[in-house]
Specification:
This protein has twelve helices and ten strands. The chain is of the alpha/beta class and about 290 residues long. It folds into two domains: about 5-230, P-loop containing nucleotide triphosphate hydrolases (Rossmann fold); about 245-285, no CATH class. Helix 3 (about 100-110) packs across helix 4 (about 115-130) and helix 3 (about 100-110) runs parallel beside helix 6. The longest helix is centred in the middle third of the chain and has 17 residues, at about 175-195. It is globular. It starts with a strand and ends with a helix.
Length: about 290
C-alpha cells in the first residue's frame, strides 16, 4: 500500500453561499505497482481527489496517508509527499519556461539540492523514459518542439523528481492522433519498465482499456465503482447510468454476438478483438 484515503470529504467555499461538496466520504487504498484509471463525468470529483494525493488540497475532513505520512501534517512531510507523488496537470506544456529542455527538466532536482552529476543522471533517465533523445534534444528550446514532444518534456520534469506515484490528468488532451499514441505508448513502457504506480485520469474509455489494470469510477463526489478493468467494463448499464460508456470495440463485439456470432464479447481492446475475430472466422472456415 502506498496511499490510503480514509473518510475523505472536501467542501469548496465552505460556510459561504457558494458552498459545494466535491468529495463525500471517500475511502480507497492505492497499492504499489497498480496502474489505475480514474474516470467519471465532469464534476464527479476526479480532479479534486487527485489534488489531495500530494497535498495540493487538504481534506475538509478525513485523512490521506502517503507512504505513512499524513498530507495534513507538518510542512516537512508535505515536501516529502510531493517528491513521492508527481502530478501532471492537463496541458502541462503551458508550464514550460526555461530556455533549454535540460534546464526545464532539471528545475525540480536542482531545487532538491542535488549535485550536478545526480541532476544530469535524473534528466537523462527522465528523457529516455518518455522517448526523448538526451543528446539530440537537451540543448534545444522546448518551444521548438511539437505538442506531443512538449508534453513529454513536461512529464519528464515530474519523473526527474523520482516519484513513487505518477498522476496524469488527461495527458492526451488536445493532441493529434500521432501525439496521443506516442504519449500512451511511452506511459505503457514506463509502467512496464519502472517500479512506479500510475493513476490516469481520462475521459477516453479506449485509453483506459488499453493501459490500466484497475478502474475507479467517481460520481457526485463518491466512489461509485472500483474493480479490475474487465470487470468494470462488463457493467455497461451501470456505467451508462453514471453518464459513461464502454470501449467502442467492446460495444461492436457485443452487437456482433447478438447477431448470432458466438464471439467473446468481453474483449476491451482492438488487439483482443482482432485476435478473437481471426479465431472465430478460422473456426467457421473449418466447419
Amino acid at each position: 500500500m502506498i496511499i490510503k484515503i480514509e473518510d475523505l470529504s472536501y467542501i469548496y467555499n465552505q460556510n459561504t453561499p457558494f458552498e459545494m461538496k466535491a468529495l463525500d466520504n471517500v475511502n480507497l487504498v492505492i497499492n504499489e505497482g497498480e496502474f489505475i484509471g480514474l474516470i467519471g463525468h465532469t464534476g464527479s470529483g476526479k480532479s479534486t481527489l487527485v489534488q489531495h494525493l500530494n497535498g495540493l488540497i487538504r481534506p475538509t475532513s478525513g485523512r490521506v496517508i502517503v507512504d505513512g505520512m499524513d498530507t495534513s501534517g507538518d510542512k516537512k512531510n508535505l515536501l516529502k509527499i510531493r517528491q513521492k507523488v508527481g502530478l501532471v496537470f492537463q496541458y502541462p506544456e503551458h508550464q514550460l519556461f526555461e530556455e533549454t529542455i535540460y534546464k526545464d527538466i532539471a528545475f525540480g532536482p536542482i531545487n532538491l539540492g542535488l549535485n550536478e552529476e545526480e541532476v544530469q543522471q535524473r534528466v537523462k533517465k527522465a528523457m529516455e523514459s518518455v522517448g526523448l533523445s538526451y543528446e539530440k534534444l537537451k540543448d534545444r528550446s522546448p518551444f521548438e518542439l511539437s505538442g506531443g514532444q512538449k508534453r513529454r518534456v513536461a512529464i519528464a520534469g515530474v519523473l526527474a523528481m523520482n516519484p513513487k506515484v505518477l498522476i496524469l490528468d488527461e495527458p492526451t488532451a488536445g493532441l493529434d492522433p500521432r501525439g496521443r499514441d506516442e504519449i500512451l505508448g511511452e506511459l505503457k513502457k514506463l509502467y512496464e519498465e519502472e517500479n512506479i504506480t500510475i493513476i490516469l485520469v481520462s475521459h477516453s474509455m479506449e485509453e483506459i482499456a488499453m493501459l490500466v489494470n484497475r478502474i475507479i469510477v467517481m460520481h457526485k463526489g463518491k466512489v461509485a465503482m472500483d474493480g479490475k478493468t474487465r470487470e468494470v467494463f462488463k457493467e455497461k448499464k451501470k456505467l451508462e447510468e453514471l453518464g459513461l460508456g464502454i470501449p467502442q470495440i467492446t460495444q461492436f463485439m457485443r452487437e456482433y454476438r447478438m447477431k448470432g456470432n458466438p464471439v467473446d464479447d468481453t474483449v476491451i481492446t482492438v488487439e483482443e478483438a482482432k485476435n478473437e475475430l481471426i479465431k472465430y472466422l478460422r473456426s467457421k472456415g473449418n466447419d
